[in-house]
Amino acid sequence: DADVTQTPRNRITKTGKRIMLECSQTKGHDRMYWYRQDPGLGLRLIYYSFDVKDINKGEISDGYSVSRQAQAKFSLSLESAIPNQTALYFCATSAGTEETQYFGPGTRLLVL
Amino acid sequence: GQSLEQPSEVTAVEGAIVQINCTYQTSGFYGLSWYQQHDGGAPTFLSYNGLDGLEETGRFSSFLSRSDSYGYLLLQELQMKDSASYFCAVRHYGQNFVFGPGTRLSVLP
């Protein structure tokens, strides 16, 4: 069974719609992250959370919001989707001060 | 600011050795990590250097020199399955991770 899961795996939406991407983990990690991946730009951090009451903006947080509903769940919302938010989105987890991040399978989002 | 630079593409033949470089302009980080990502897949952790020097894990080795702001991933005895993108990353003292743009490795028969 996957340790880090993301739903949905693929999503097509229209400009202006609100959508939510969900991430769940069974690894027991306290830290969770949302990244966006665009061709040639690597992974860019959107938001990260070190525990349920801790939320931090990353490099590209504008147009996004997050919710850490529980230690195991971290959701990413696009309040009003726009076409340049079309990308591959990854959730990741890590434990304490460990260097290893564990990534979910990704959500491919297309905004028309 | 924080930025990492990598070559965009590298090509090598099966059985060869290839080195993927990562140069960075950042201060105050714990160490340099490397991740592998196959097309359509998620990044997976390969290696970490907290201290200067070489770390070896099977066919893969990674090196860090903080004084030169430079690191590299060395892949030996290349196999077709090594064709993938490789990302370097640092964990900044602000506790968040910053990734390089990635290097696409193509292994030819």
Itemize the secondary structure elements and their pairings.
The complex is a heterodimer of chains A (112) and B (109).
Chain A: E1 4-7, E2 10-13, E3 19-25, E4 31-38, E5 42-51, E6 54-57, E7 64-70, E8 73-78, E9 87-94, E10 102-103, E11 107-111
Parallel strand pairs in A: 2-11
Antiparallel strand pairs in A: 1-3, 3-8, 4-5, 4-9, 5-6, 7-8, 9-10, 9-11
Chain B: E1 3-5, E2 9-13, E3 18-25, E4 29-37, E5 44-49, E6 53-57, E7 60-65, E8 70-75, E9 84-92, E10 97-99, E11 103-108
Parallel strand pairs in B: 2-11
Antiparallel strand pairs in B: 1-3, 3-8, 4-5, 4-9, 6-7, 7-8, 9-10, 9-11
Report what the structure shows.
The complex is a heterodimer of chains A (112) and B (109). Chain A is an all-beta fold and 112 residues long. Chain A is built from no helices and eleven strands. In chain A, strands 2, 4, 5, 6, 9, 10 and 11 form a seven-stranded mixed β-sheet that branches. A four-stranded antiparallel β-sheet of chain A has the order 1-3-8-7, with no helix packed on it. In chain A, a hairpin with a 3-residue loop joins strand 4 and strand 5. The model of chain A has no long low-confidence stretch (mean pLDDT 93). With 109 residues, chain B is an all-beta fold. In chain B, strands 2, 4, 5, 9, 10 and 11 form a six-stranded mixed β-sheet that branches. Chain B has a five-stranded antiparallel β-sheet with strand order 1-3-8-7-6, with no helix packed on it. Chain B has strands spanning 3-5, 9-13, 18-25, 29-37, 44-49, 53-57, 60-65, 70-75, 84-92, 97-99, 103-108. Chain B is globular. At the A-B interface, strand 5 and strand 10 of A face strand 4, strand 5, strand 9 and strand 10 of B.
Number of strands of chain A: 11
Low-pLDDT segments of chain A: none
The counted number of beta strands of chain B is 11
Overall form of chain B: globular
**End-to-end Cα distance of chain A:** 33 Å
Brief write-up:
The complex is a heterodimer of chains A (112) and B (109). By secondary structure, chain A is mostly beta strands.
